[in-house]
């Protein structure tokens, strides 16, 4: 019995004293040498065996590292969701610039297969937002400025909810209760930094301080309305850390960590037990001191070697490389890769066309000796496709190899990728990428790149003339001259339009040591690279001259011999299908209406023709002509009405006035009467009879055309009471007698 009690007490003592047995907070890690069983590590994360520090990332490019508690923390429905944590971290630069940063994370899961490195900290990606499946609360310590993520600086702290865009951020600092003011903290100083994150209710507080400073009374960040159960969609949560690098790197360490479900039970970190931070910069400093001493000795030995062996050197042993491509018709010394091709018969070198995500490279096939000086002069043209965003650009490139299987298109210009690779490039870039230190200007920019697409020197595309700096539009489609001169350790880049002499002042000047860029390399290749992405354009090289003997021995450019640059014609945009259908339907409807009107008018003026008409040889008028002559049988032209029908006055196109009688008839008898009248009037001719000009027959309408009598009818003269002339029946009988 005593033995069992002793064993139980020993177990409890080990449980409370040894962090490796703790699964639920509160707990404290003063170093992580005994925490391996309780932590889930992936990516670049590891526990350093020599000091027990938790390292999230090192100086590897585009790296992610995650360290989480192996077991999630469950909150039952009866207890409030709250926590308090205190950790000590250190971020050490691995070159300049350095980045990207690390984050304390509360997550729904430890599966970060969707995540990306660089500015996404290994927990988010480019499509992450508050509606995605990424369910994360993060407190970021960010050391790289990403304007597209609304970063405020390259040294800030932020609160992120399901996205790398911070809900709240502030420059890294702490409030000094002693001095009564905020004091800046440099995250990348390499010094240990304390971080407290406290969550209770819906309030999240974040506080920073140097290592041996008490927790400030005033937090750096306070965010209200943070509902943790909504963020992670439940009451089961994983706690831990994440870090990431990109093309810029840093060492990211967690030295100690304390976590509790409530603030009152948070255990203190013992600073004396924390592991010491490895400072690679110390080793670099020692090496640099040794290299200075070694270089001094090397200079003395080199001078002795040069003096003693100068007589052995003959001019014939100094190899000079010099070539010119007046056009690229002859491809004997040309190495073409990917989409690059020569357009015949002009000899124009096309690196890319207007297809998406293309790369094209063209190099002088023979390598050149590692050089102390060179000059090159080339003419290029970037032609945009009408109606499409143009991009990305081209580079003059010096590389130790022709193997670019690692290269990527888009902003990497077919020469680089997200990792570093030995190359020197002069870029003509037409797309703004702030993560590459690009400048946002119209017309594009020019940059000098060493081993990655982050330019070490950049300027808007322009050239210097007597009147000052003149802007150039790289995407104008016009040929542009480019000069790249390397002498000693200075690289100069100049631009100018086609018919302008080389400017006396270069656009870019930067010290460069080719031996540092290409160590242990005696042969280098020179050429061009270009790329497209969603943004596309044609990249052309028209002419190229290169020499290792300085700019004075470059071949002169003969503008008259340059090939013509093809410019795509802009095609009108196709109309949407629904508009085409509407136009067709409208056209059909208009044609139908016109056809209806035509047939209606044709039917309206249609006439009847019979055999008797030819027999009597009477003149026949068209109904249409009589209709027009009488103004459509207008009331204004109405003359009178007799026993056989109505009479209208009309006027023919020749000016002759006529009288048109519309004979009323019923059936065949009416037609017979009409025919008889036509025949009789045609045969009878007398000076007292009204002459008949012709007739017209239309369906059931019978029309007689006679001469118009302006003096009226006999009836009017005999029975006109209005004019006081009236003959009664007695008078008429007297006249008859």
Automatic annotation (TrEMBL):
Q: Which reaction does it catalyse?
A: L-seryl-[protein] + ATP = O-phospho-L-seryl-[protein] + ADP + H(+); L-threonyl-[protein] + ATP = O-phospho-L-threonyl-[protein] + ADP + H(+)
**What keywords are annotated for this sequence in UniProt?**
ATP-binding, Cell membrane, Glycoprotein, Kinase, Lectin, Membrane, Nucleotide-binding, Receptor, Serine/threonine-protein kinase, Signal, Transferase, Transmembrane, Transmembrane helix
Q: What is its main location?
A: membrane
Q: Where does ATP bind?
A: 661
Q: Which Pfam families match?
A: Lectin_legB, PK_Tyr_Ser-Thr
Give the way it sits in the membrane: Single-pass type I membrane protein
* A single cellular component GO annotation: plasma membrane
Q: Which InterPro entries match?
A: ConA-like_dom_sf, Kinase-like_dom_sf, Legume_lectin_dom, Leguminous_Lectin, Prot_kinase_dom, Protein_kinase_ATP_BS, Ser-Thr/Tyr_kinase_cat_dom
Spell out where the chain crosses the membrane.
578-599
Classification via CDD domains: lectin_legume_LecRK_Arcelin_ConA
> What range does the record give for the signal peptide?
1-22
Subcellular location per UniProt equals:
Cell membrane
GO molecular function annotation:
ATP binding; carbohydrate binding; protein serine/threonine kinase activity
GO BP annotations of the record are: defense response
- The record places domain Protein kinase at 633-737
Protein family according to the UniProt entry: In the C-terminal section; belongs to the protein kinase superfamily. Ser/Thr protein kinase family. Belongs to the leguminous lectin family.
Query: What protein name applies here?
Result: (rape) hypothetical protein
What organism is listed for this UniProt entry? Answer: Brassica napus (Rape)
């Amino acid at each position: 019995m005593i033995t069992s009690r002793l064993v139980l007490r020993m177990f409890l003592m080990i449980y409370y004293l040894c962090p490796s047995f703790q699964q639920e907070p509160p707990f404290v890690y003063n170093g992580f040498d005994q925490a391996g069983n309780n932590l889930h590590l992936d990516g670049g994360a590891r526990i350093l065996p020599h000091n027990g520090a938790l390292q999230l990332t090192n100086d590897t490019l585009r790296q992610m590292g995650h360290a989480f508690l192996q077991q999630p923390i469950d909150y039952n429905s009866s207890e409030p969701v709250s926590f308090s944590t205190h950790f000590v971290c250190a971020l050490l630069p691995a070159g300049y610039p350095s980045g990207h940063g690390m984050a304390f994370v509360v997550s729904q899961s430890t599966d970060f297969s969707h995540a990306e490195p660089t500015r996404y900290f290994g927990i988010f990606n480019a499509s992450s937002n508050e509606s995605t499946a990424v369910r994360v609360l993060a407190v970021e310590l960010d050391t790289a400025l990403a304007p597209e993520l609304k970063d405020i600086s390259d040294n800030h702290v932020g609160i992120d909810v399901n996205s790398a865009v911070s809900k709240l951020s502030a420059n890294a600092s702490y409030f000094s209760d002693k001095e009564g003011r905020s004091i800046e903290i440099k995250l990348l100083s390499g010094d240990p930094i304390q971080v407290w994150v406290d969550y209770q209710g819906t309030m999240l507080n974040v506080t920073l301080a140097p290592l041996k400073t008490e927790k400030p009374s005033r937090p750096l960040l306070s965010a209200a309305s943070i509902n943790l159960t909504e963020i992670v969609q439940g009451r089961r949560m994983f706690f831990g850390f994440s870090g990431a690098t990109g093309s810029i790197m840093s060492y990211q360490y967690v030295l100690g960590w304390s976590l509790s479900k409530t603030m009152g039970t948070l255990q203190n970190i013992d600073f004396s037990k924390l592991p010491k931070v490895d400072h690679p910069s110390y080793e670099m400093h020692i090496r640099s001191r040794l290299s200075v001493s070694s270089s001094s000795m090397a200079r003395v030995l080199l001078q002795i070697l040069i003096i003693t062996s100068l007589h052995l050197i003959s001019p014939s042993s100094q190899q000079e490389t010099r070539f010119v491509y007046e056009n690229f018709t002859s491809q004997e010394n040309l190495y073409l890769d990917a989409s690059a091709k020569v357009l015949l018969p002009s000899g124009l070198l096309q690196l890319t066309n207007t297809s998406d995500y293309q790369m094209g490279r063209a190099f002088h096939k023979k390598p050149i000796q590692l050089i102390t000086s060179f000059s090159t002069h080339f003419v290029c043209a970037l032609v945009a496709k009408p109606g499409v965003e143009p991009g990305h650009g081209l580079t003059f490139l010096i590389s130790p190899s022709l193997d670019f299987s690692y290269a990527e298109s888009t902003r990497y210009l077919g020469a680089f990728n997200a990792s570093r690779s030995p190359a020197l490039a002069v870029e003509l870039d037409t797309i703004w990428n702030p993560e590459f230190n690009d400048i946002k200007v119209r017309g594009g920019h020019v940059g000098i790149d060493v081993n990655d697409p982050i330019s070490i020197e950049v300027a808007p595309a322009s050239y210097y003339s007597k009147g000052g700096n003149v802007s150039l539009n790289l995407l104008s489609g016009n040929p542009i001259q480019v000069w790249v001169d390397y002498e000693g350790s200075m690289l100069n880049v100049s631009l100018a339009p086609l018919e302008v002499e080389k400017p006396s002042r270069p656009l870019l000047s930067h010290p460069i040591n080719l031996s540092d860029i290409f160590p242990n390399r005696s042969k280098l290749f020179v050429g061009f690279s270009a790329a497209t992405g969603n943004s596309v354009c044609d990249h052309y090289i028209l002419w190229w001259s290169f020499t290792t003997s300085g700019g004075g021995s470059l071949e002169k450019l003969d503008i008259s011999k340059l090939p013509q640059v093809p410019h795509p014609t802009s095609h009108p945009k196709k109309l949407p299908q629904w508009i085409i259908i509407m136009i067709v339907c409208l056209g059909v409807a208009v044609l139908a209406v016109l056809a209806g009107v035509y047939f209606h008018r044709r039917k309206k003026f249609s006439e009847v023709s019979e055999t008797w008409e030819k027999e009597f040889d009477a003149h026949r008028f068209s109904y249409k002509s009589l209709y027009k002559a009488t103004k459509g049988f207008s009331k204004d032209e109405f003359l009178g009405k007799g026993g056989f029908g109505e009479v209208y006055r009309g006027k023919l196109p020749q000016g002759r006035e006529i009288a048109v009688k519309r004979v009323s008839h019923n059936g065949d008898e009416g037609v017979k009467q009409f025919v008889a009248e036509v025949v009789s009037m045609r045969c009878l001719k007398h000076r007292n009879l009204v002459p008949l000009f012709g007739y017209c027959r239309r369906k059931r309408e019978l029309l007689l055309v006679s001469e118009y009598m302006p003096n009226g009818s006999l009836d009017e003269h005999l029975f006109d009471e209005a004019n006081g002339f009236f003959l009664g029946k007695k008078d008429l009988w007297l006249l008859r007698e």
